[in-house]
Amino acid sequence: MPSDDFFVASFEKLQRMGHVGANPNPATGGRLRPRTTRFPTGKDGRRLFKPRKVENFNSILGREIKKQGWQKPLAAGWIMGQWPSVVGHDIAAHTKIEMVKGSTLFITCDSTAWATNLRLMQRRILQTIAAMIGPNIITQLKIFGPKPPSWRKGRLHVKGRGPRDTYG
């Protein structure tokens, strides 16, 4: 183990070379310069903090929706919720969206006449949907007439022709 003399000699050598000494800044004669503030201060001298840039909720939510790939399901849900504003209240009163599967919208109508009229307006409805939620989200409409009631009661039933087109 080196002796204390070795450490003292090393310190003195470094001091002569100018690496170690009592004067930390020879240009100022040993006086330390006052620290300059690099941030704004108030009238009382306390530091003023910069206001943070806070993102609004809409941009955060939009970024998360894109990241997760939820655009199509959310757009389809929006169509189901806003159906009266898409087709109008008169048509919406006689139609019901059953489901969205892929890019196909399944619609059930009150009567076969409403189903026929809706099929004739199909192109305009698809254009309106594309304008509201974007292209290639809903590309096809499947339009059905009313569902007849089931005549089956209970677990057991007899095969037969049953009622024909008596409804709608």
UniProtKB/TrEMBL annotation:
<protein>
    <submittedName>
        <fullName>DciA family protein</fullName>
    </submittedName>
</protein>
<feature type="region of interest" description="Disordered">
    <location>
        <begin position="18"/>
        <end position="45"/>
    </location>
</feature>
<dbReference type="Pfam" id="PF05258">
    <property type="entry name" value="DciA"/>
</dbReference>
<dbReference type="InterPro" id="IPR007922">
    <property type="entry name" value="DciA-like"/>
</dbReference>
